[in-house]
Specification:
The structure holds three protein chains of three kinds.
Chain A: H1 18-21, E1 23-27, E2 43-47, H2 51-63, H3 86-91, H4 108-125, E3 129-131, H5 137-154, E4 161-165, H6 170-178, E5 182-186, H7 196-202, E6 207-213, H8 225-234, E7 238-243, H9 255-258, E8 262-265, H10 267-270, E9 285-287, E10 299-304, E11 308-312, H11 328-363, E12 377-380, H12 386-395, E13 402-403, E14 412-415, H13 423-438, H14 441-446, H15 458-463, H16 469-479
Parallel strand pairs in A: 4-5, 4-6, 6-7, 7-8
Antiparallel strand pairs in A: 1-2, 3-9, 8-9, 10-11, 12-14, 13-14
Helix pairs in contact in A: 4-11, 5-6, 11-13, 12-13
Chain B: H1 14-24, H2 52-63, E1 70-71, H3 84-90, H4 93-96, H5 108-125, E2 129-130, H6 137-151, E3 158-162, H7 167-176, E4 183-187, E5 189-190, E6 193-194, H8 196-202, E7 207-213, H9 225-234, E8 238-244, E9 261-265, E10 280-284, E11 297-301, E12 307-311, H10 318-321, H11 334-371, E13 376-377, E14 388-393, H12 397-406, E15 409-410, E16 412-415, E17 418-422, H13 431-441
Parallel strand pairs in B: 1-15, 3-4, 3-7, 7-8, 8-9
Antiparallel strand pairs in B: 2-10, 5-6, 9-10, 11-12, 13-14, 14-17, 16-17
Helix pairs in contact in B: 3-11, 5-11, 6-7
Chain C: E1 9-10, E2 15-17, E3 23-27, H1 29-35, E4 38-42, E5 49-50, E6 55-61, E7 65-69, E8 74-79, H2 82-85, H3 89-92, E9 101-105, H4 117-124
Antiparallel strand pairs in C: 1-2, 2-3, 3-9, 4-6, 5-8, 6-7, 8-9
The chains are: A alpha/beta, B alpha/beta, C alpha+beta.
Chain lengths: 480, 442, 125
């Protein structure tokens, strides 16, 4: 046994709901109201606590939450990197807090930063033009596919299919479908890469685009990328790059050079903007010259060094994918991160990300069926249930990898330590993997036991959805 | 600081790197990259690394290039005073640097906070299901129309939206429906309210959804919302109501006027002016639960029979249902929802209602003061207003707005002779200044 | 070993049907085991028409969604509404209390095209 101490929470004390602490119902309307009663509601009931009580409530909740500052967070394909603190301070600059409808001449600083970020991203991706509007990676995929659709339509080309490898992120399928495309699923070859023969058979006059992640979702570089690009282009299709795994390639290969026409960047993955427990993210989209006129509007350009920056609508823009200009605060943090690292830092980030994944892979006792991998690997827990192994790893004080995905690896444990972990930290992670590997089925099935909550019953949550404290009250009424 | 030449956030000492390479069995990190020669890149982006200190100077200087204007702007993006506690608590790294709650046993804190956010939306909308966020009000509206498409498949493809709708919202709506049979049409407004008569002419059993806003984009408060709800219901169309977190505390409760889906901006609380960054509110009826886009937090029990929170009904989502998911959304605006929840809880019910009432009073007062000025009429619409209103000006609106900028104030231009002005607790103390500036430039 | 009653007929997509005048339809023991805990079942309404081989509903577990395919053509005359409150019946008792639809077959000759219990057993082994 390597670990014998609870690493996470000593007591099982739960934090009561705000509504359990105190709520008040106040009347709305009446004589003092600025509105006649028929235009107002009758009352509002909400939590009613003092500031000190709230401070303790949310502080307690924060203590019941894992984060990148708590310890390793090796979720494969999620790329949980350290979020530099100074980026919060620069994003909080009050002069940057402007309304989106301000005149361009009065927000030159904002526009200059956005323009600078467009330029940085274009260089990093090997793209010609970038929009910063999509508020998350999936929104970027959707915007990118809209661009592809507009391009084909402008050419009078009626194409209705998007080809996606079976191992791709679920968002690829959903984004293509939202844009109205039929999805054609592409199998992997036995090495875990795109099956080029299957691709050749799949492409044709109906092919609008192929969406691809490279390295793919088991960390493998698609070695045949040039041939893949040629195959898709010859059929008249476009090549879309899902930027989820860009952290593996920074400075060593660029999607634009590989033949990709459209790509999105996940700034929380590659450029270390905090994920905030589920967002906000940002999903800028880069395209080659030929597609620039279709990008969402507006974009930022420099008019001249004297007259400064302006917003403009690309000539045949697909229009809007966000009500305004996207997730501004996140974009500021991404700019600051890229500028902090520069060429050498970016190159080093991918080097250390790949080094860490390979070192961790070498220390983990589970089999890793596909390689050579880059920034992440898909180990298999074999006879053991990967989800149970993951729960047991919680007891060992680490966050487990992504489990049971991609499905090409049975009982997959998709692991991505990123560049931020030290050797010591990777050794701890490996020890957690290996300790769980050595535990018996019963222990695994009962895990975790040292965490804030024990194993949570997902089945009853889904069979009997209770999604608000009103629903909880109704439930206890039923019991009574 | 570890290495001068690498990423400042990679901790490897040289000896560690060597030991790790040994363990892997290669001599050089470069050997780990399986990238064909033909697509190799030389690593030169031409991006100069800067120190943290230099960057703070650089960006501070950059933002100083923004003119320091007092904004009286709204039209879908609002600035309310955000109390210090919101920044302080939401910035705790345990919240800020966490990921989506895929392992609920160690993310109970965030899950509870999101559950409480959902719960407060349920209280305010009167609808029993609220998700834990969409990107912004525009994408929330667009997702509502997609929901209408799924639940109203039989009865038609028309989506009716008001004549006055932010172009950004309309643009997103059009794009989100591009892959469906749905078509978007506008219905007219009557002096700042839905023209219920005209709408009743337009609506038919081919109508899948009617969208209305309260307050409208021009700040006017709707007076016949229940009639709109009735029209929708009679025609088996979904009634989607757009609003925001502050307006909800005062204006008619969405459930009471027959709203089937409530969308809008929840980032009016918790977020300062952020160049349009938002927080999409989304609530609906129980019967559409399985068609809801985005993440939902539910309650269950753990192995020790204690209450526990978890993401639930995930089979709706893209990572399981892929091309048949209710939406492609994955990462949403969870942290912004946390901020809104803290702000909401800090205000409490009285504070929230007071804030909302001030949005009506202050707008009425400011409109009256501007109306008294020669060459201005306000409000243009003879309605009650929330936060903002349209001003008719005898001189060209763009010229006045430009002159106001020189005086240090920003307002919207919404027509050749129309301006729009928005007042909240964040700028109300400068109302005298705005009025004086108008006097100066007229 | 999974239970495969001899008196029922099967399709490769793991639905079963009885061969009665009003045929009962459900999913097999093997299918419920593969899915895991069923949390939700979506079924057509009475009066709806089924077409052999076409989707007629959806069954969901926590981590998976499966379409249901009609083993025969016909008119739905009964729906097991108990499943809406107790989807676990599909796991607990897939051939009895966990039934899904009652269907008036359009063409009884279709039964002959289906797998026998023995043939289905071979498929799942």
């Amino acid at each position: 046994m390597i670990y014998d101490q609870a690493r996470y929470v000593e007591n099982g004390q739960y934090e009561p709901l705000l509504s359990e602490k105190e709520t008040t119902e106040v009347e709305v309307g009446g004589d003092d109201s600025p509105l006649p009663d028929d235009l107002t509601r009758d009352s509002v009931e909400l939590p009613d606590l003092s500031e000190p009580e709230l401070a303790r409530h949310y502080t307690r909740l924060s203590q019941m939450n894992w984060s990148i500052d708590s310890g390793p967070y090796p979720l494969g394909s999620c790329t949980m990197k350290y979020n530099p603190k100074f980026t919060e301070d620069v994003a909080a600059d009050p002069n940057g807090a402007v309304h989106p409808d301000r005149s361009a001449r009065s927000v030159q600083g904002t526009l200059k930063l956005l323009h600078g970020l467009q330029e940085y991203l274009a260089k990093i991706g090997g793209m010609d033009a970038v929009t910063l509007q999509p508020p998350a990676g999936a929104a970027g995929e959707f915007a990118g596919i809209l661009v592809a659709k507009a391009y084909h339509e402008a050419n009078g080309d009626d194409r209705n299919e998007v080809i996606i490898p079976a191992s791709a992120h679920g968002t690829n399928f959903a984004s293509a479908a939202m844009a109205g495309y039929d999805v054609v699923e592409l199998p992997s070859d036995e090495d875990g890469r795109v099956d080029v023969e299957a691709l050749e058979a799949a492409v044709g006059d109906d092919t609008a685009a192929l969406m691809l992640t490279n390295p793919n979702t088991v960390g493998l570089f698609e070695r045949d990328i040039e041939q893949i690009a040629e195959t898709v282009h010859e059929a008249g299709g476009l090549l879309y790059y899902d930027g989820a795994n860009l952290n593996a390639l920074l400075g060593r290969a660029r999607p634009g050079d590989m033949g990709f026409d459209i790509m999105h960047y996940n700034v929380h993955k590659t450029f270390a903007t905090p994920h905030g427990g589920g967002g906000p993210g940002a999903g800028p989209v880069g395209v080659v010259d030929e597609l620039a006129e279709f990008l969402p509007s507006p974009r930022v350009r420099e008019r001249s060094s004297r007259s400064g920056y302006e917003l403009f609508d690309p000539e045949r823009s697909v229009g809007k994918v966000h009500g305004f200009h996207g997730n501004w605060l996140v974009l500021v943090k991404a700019y600051a991160y890229i500028a902090r690292l520069g060429d050498e830092g970016l190159l080093d980030a991918s080097a250390k990300a790949v080094l860490n994944a390979n070192y961790l892979g070498s220390q983990v006792e589970f089999d890793i069926p596909y390689g050579p991998f880059h920034h992440e690997f898909a180990a298999t827990s074999g006879e053991k249930d990967a989800a149970n192994v993951a729960k047991r790893m919680l007891d060992y004080g680490v966050h487990p990898p992504t489990t049971k995905w991609p499905e090409m690896v049975p009982e997959a444990m998709l692991t991505e330590p990123t560049e931020i972990e030290s050797k010591k930290s990777l050794d701890d992670l490996a020890a957690a993997f290996n300790a769980a590997a050595g535990d018996d089925e019963e222990t695994l099935a009962d895990a975790p036991s040292r965490t804030t909550a024990r194993r949570i019953d997902q089945v009853s949550a889904a069979r009997n959805p209770q999604l608000s404290w009103r629903a909880l009250d109704d439930e206890s009424d039923d019991d009574a | 600081m570890t290495s001068e030449r690498g990423s400042p956030y990679a901790p490897h000492a040289d000896a560690e790197t060597v030991a790790m390479l040994d363990a892997i069995g290669v001599d050089d990190v470069e050997a780990l990259f399986d990238i064909p020669e033909g697509v190799r890149f030389d690593g030169e982006f031409g991006i100069e690394p800067r120190s943290e200190q230099a960057l703070r100077r650089e960006l501070s200087a950059l933002f100083a290039k923004n003119d320091d204007l007092t904004e009286f702007m709204g039209r879908g993006h609002y600035d309310h005073y955000v109390p210090s506690i919101v920044d302080n608590l939401s910035q705790r790294a345990e919240f800020l640097t966490s990921y989506t709650q895929y392992q609920p046993e160690i993310t109970q804190g965030f899950l509870q906070a999101l559950f409480e956010y959902q719960s407060m939306l349920v209280e305010l909308t009167g609808l029993p299901v609220a998700n834990c966020s969409m990107y912004d009000s525009a994408t929330a509206l667009a997702e509502a129309a997609r929901l209408a498409n799924r639940v109203r498949q039989v009865s038609g493809t028309r989506v009716l939206v008001p004549e006055f709708l932010r172009s950004g919202k309309r643009g997103v709506l059009d794009n989100y429906l591009a892959g469906t049979e749905m078509t978007v049409e506008t219905y007219p407004m009557d002096d700042g309210n839905v023209d219920v008569g005209a709408l009743s002419e337009l609506v038919d059993d081919e109508t899948a959804m009617i969208y209305a806003e309260n307050p409208t984009v021009r700040g006017s408060i709707e007076e016949r919302l229940a009639d709109v709800g009735e029209l929708a219901s009679e025609n088996d169309a979904l009634f989607c109501l757009g609003t925001d977190l502050v307006a909800l505390a005062l204006l008619e409760e969405p459930a009471s006027v027959g709203a089937d889906v409530v969308v809008g901006e929840a980032g009016v609380l918790g977020l300062p002016s952020a160049y349009g960054m938002g927080l999409g509110l989304f609530a609906t009826r129980e019967e559409y639960l399985r068609q809801v886009p985005g993440r939902l937090v539910g309650v269950s029990e753990d192995a020790a029979d204690k209450r526990a929170y978890t993401l639930t009904l995930q089979t709706r989502e893209q990572h399981i249902r892929r091309e048949r998911a209710t939406s492609n959304i994955c990462t949403n605006q969870a942290w912004v929802a946390l901020r809104a929840a803290i702000h909401l809880a800090w205000l409490g019910p009285s504070g929230l209602v007071d804030l909302a009432e001030d949005c009506v009073r202050d707008a009425a007062d400011l409109a009256e003061r501007l109306d008294a000025l020669l060459g201005l009429q306000a409000p243009v619409h003879d309605r009650y207003h929330f936060r903002e209103f349209v001003v008719r000006c005898d001189q060209p609106a763009a010229a006045i707005a430009g002159d106001l900028e020189s005086e240090g104030f920003a307002v919207h231009v919404v027509g050749e002779h129309l301006l729009q002005v928005c007042i909240t607790d964040a700028n109300a103390h400068d109302a005298d200044g705005l009025v004086a500036a108008f006097e100066e430039v007229l | 070993m999974f239970e495969v009653p001899d008196d029922l007929r099967y399709v490769e997509s793991h639905e079963w049907t009885s061969t009665d005048d009003v045929a009962r339809i459900g999913i097999t023991d093997f299918a419920q085991d593969e899915l895991g805990d069923v949390v939700f079942v979506e079924l057509p309404d009475e009066g709806d028409e089924l077409a052999k081989g076409e989707e007629f509903g959806v069954v969901e577990s926590i981590k998976a969604v499966s379409d249901l395919y009609a083993p025969i053509s016909g008119t739905v005359v009964g729906v097991n509404e108990a499943l809406f409150d107790q989807p676990e019946l599909v796991n607990d008792d897939p051939y009895a209390e966990g039934w899904m639809l009652e269907v008036e077959p359009a063409d009884e000759a279709e039964f002959d095209e289906l797998l026998t219990a023995e043939e289905y057993r071979e498929q799942t082994e």
